[in-house]
Amino acid sequence: MGVEQKLGNMGVVTMRLEDAVNWARTGSMWPVLFGLACCAIEMMAAQASNYDLSRFGMELNRASPRQSDLMIVAGRVSRKMAPVVRRLYDQMPEPKWVLSMGDCASTTGVFNNYALIQGVDEVVPVDVYVAGCPPRPEALIHGIITLHEKVKGESLKDWS
Amino acid sequence: MNEQLQFAVEALKERFGGVEKIFRGDVEVILTPESIVPACQTLRDEFDFEMLVDVTAVDYWPQEEPRFHVVYRIRSLKHNLIIGLRVPVDGDNPAVSTIEGVYPNANWFEREVYDMFGIRFEGHSDLRRILMPYEWVGHPLRKDYPLGYEEVQFTFNFDEINVRKPFARRVNKK
Amino acid sequence: MGLEIFPQTDVTAEQVSVEDIKHLITNRAIEGETMLLNMGPQHPSTHGVLRLLLELDGETVVNCIPDIGYLHTGIEKNMEAKTYIKAEVMSDRIDYLNNLGNNLVYCLAVEKLVDLDVPPRAQAIRVILAELQRIASHLIWLGTHALDLAAMSVFLYCFREREIILDIFELCSGQRMMTTYIRPGGLWRDTPVEFEDAVRNFLKIFPRRIDEYEALLTKNPLFIERTKNIGILTPEDAIKWGVTGPMLRASGIAHDLRKVRPYSGYEQYDFDVPVANGCDTYDRYIVRIEEMRQSVRIIQQALDKLPYGPVLSSNRKYVPPPRSELGTSMEAVIHHFKYWTEGFPAPKAGVYAAVESPRGELGVYLEGDGGPKPYRCHWRTPSFANLQVLPLISKGVFVADMVALIGTVDIILGDVDR
């Protein structure tokens, strides 16, 4: 139709700009290195040999928040750590997403007491919650694919 | 009981007025706050109890006299023994002398006991909070400090808790 | 487009001002001659949320002040609010690389408190699982330590082996990490039929894999350059500061709780305690590699001698009855009901039980009060005691060596902050 018909066999395909941008964003989303507790071990296991996160473009964990666009909060967030989480989130450039991994980051899990904040969504806005204590690497991959689907449905105006 | 351990316990009972307590093979000697530092000195120098394993405390509120028991555990690597010491401390302005001069690794253990129970250690080089945030008020492991748990959200109280619960969310997103 | 947070959230960053720590840093820092650098809670090489304040003279570390508490979970207070059985769930999460070891020490303390016996088959399986957990923990230590020193392939190999061990745990209990498989009185239930074959297959392939890691690292001049003579801890200092575990054994002192105070049947097995005399980071690496080999030896012996029999004690006051009896026996129903709703009472006394975890001496001080809930459950964790030595061993090293030192002390922040 239209441009594609006229161009014929030149090897050109047309798509919406939003689709192209979102596809590029999901193709290489770099997480900031933010493993706090036990879920960090399962996150490391998801990035290692058996369950490879490198096939989603995520093998690089950037140490600096300024160079990353995904924050996987893996583990329990204590009251002393909450300002640090918030500060790191503020330092990430947009577009940025947050994946809350595990029960402790989503809803404090087993520990309902004075020392932990009840879910990391008290301090940062969360896009995807992954349940489990700790979630299997396959569950984390499922969460990441859900996040990719959410990103593919975003419009350019969300981040402009 | 092992001979060397018997000698050590007898020395503690005679010189410092300790009371011996044995339960399931664990030996504990109950001492007074004034005698804990010379007792530890004796144990380390004369009876080869070289390694301090643990310093912790137990709160017996609402019983006020004594309210806390500070529990020490010291190991002898040479003779393969372990001994426990207990010091009862009163409830208002609880204070014990520090054993940091005898065993240097009591530093962090006593900081944790101060942080969690409020027991001051006299002569400690660096008595500040270690586990809780710096401006925290209160001592969490005391029995009159609440657990601080959040009410569980079921369907019948979902909406009322949602109003009070703090959430972070983006402004321009759906 | 901004971020809206409800006004109730008080998220303010607290600052440690220089006045608070004035007694810990030298005068040169206050005058400005040396620099205070914050190796913050979020850092690729701090193995968790550890904050280090480094006082640097150029690139040399003059002083290092650890700041912990960023993972404090209040487990000890939370355990006081639950019954003995429910509190065991939290014990997995303290040292989250040594889950079965934490379960084991908690169950040893409960069994000592209520004077409960454990059948020999359960003891043997406990030993097998604890040693497998030790291998898994040392594998992660090796992977992350080598990763910090820029040997990335070792990280991938170690995690490959660890997956085999986690498959074995999942076979027994259904969970890879937080299993809570070891319960007071024995185990949760008997191991499935495939357990022995799975462990034997693992033991067949694993010694060759350790040889692979050693071929990559032990004689590697880069690794030796980065670890020899770094972080010297003399034996006198080690005992004075209460250091236990591989750090103590690499300073020449052969103190291993499995040998001097055996628990759970360790006296039946024949194994060596690896000791090195160099007191530096390289020797701690050698000690831990050798410990993995000795663990393989222990598991082999335990598997060969594995007796048949029940895996739970027969004392129904402290152990749930098997479900097959619930249909026929009224007493079993009453025991089942009391056990799962109220729990079992414990005498009014305190006990201390300790095991040799991959990091050192892990101990539990458990005090009961006659009721079903622990009155005080204190965890003596090895990482909390070992981390105190970090300012001592880091005097005079470069900033790049701090990374190696944190790796060699082998801390787990869940252990440190509980």
Number of discrete helical segments of chain B: 4
Question: Using only CA atoms, what is the Rg of chain B?
Answer: 22 Å
Major sheet details of chain B: 5 strands, mixed
How is the quaternary structure best described? Answer: heterotrimer
**N to C succession of SSEs of chain B:** HEEHEEEEHEHE
Q: List low-confidence stretches of chain A.
A: none
Arithmetic mean pLDDT of chain A: 86
How are the strands of the biggest sheet of chain A laid out side by side? 1-2-3-4
What does this structure look like?
The complex is a heterotrimer of chains A (160), B (174) and C (418). Chain A is elongated and about 65 Å long. In chain A, strand 1 (31-32), helix 3 (38-47) and strand 2 (70-74) form a beta-alpha-beta unit. Chain A has 160 residues and is an alpha/beta fold. Chain A is 36% helix and 9% strand. Chain B is built from 4 helices and 8 strands; from the N terminus they run H-E-E-H-E-E-E-E-H-E-H-E. In chain B, strand 6 (95-97), helix 3 and strand 7 form a beta-alpha-beta unit. In chain B, helix 1 runs antiparallel to helix 2. The mean pLDDT of chain B is 86. Chain C has 2 domains: 2-67, no CATH class; 82-313 and 346-376, Cytochrome-c3 Hydrogenase, chain B (Orthogonal Bundle). In chain C, a hairpin with a 2-residue loop joins strand 3 (51-57) and strand 4. The longest helix of chain C is centred in the N-terminal third of the chain and has 29 residues, at 120-148. Chain C is built from 17 helices and 9 strands. Chain C has 418 residues and is of the alpha+beta class. Chain C has helices at 27-31, 75-79, 84-91, 99-114, 120-148, 152-173, 195-217, 221-227, 235-240, 246-249, 257-260, 281-304, 330-341, 382-387, 390-393, 399-409, 413-417; strands at 3-5, 35-39, 51-57, 60-67, 182-183, 186-187, 350-357, 360-367, 376-380. In chain C, helix 3 (84-91) runs antiparallel to helix 4, helix 5 packs antiparallel against helix 6 and helix 5 packs antiparallel against helix 12. Chain C starts with a strand and ends with a helix. Strand 8 of chain B pairs antiparallel with strand 1 of chain C.
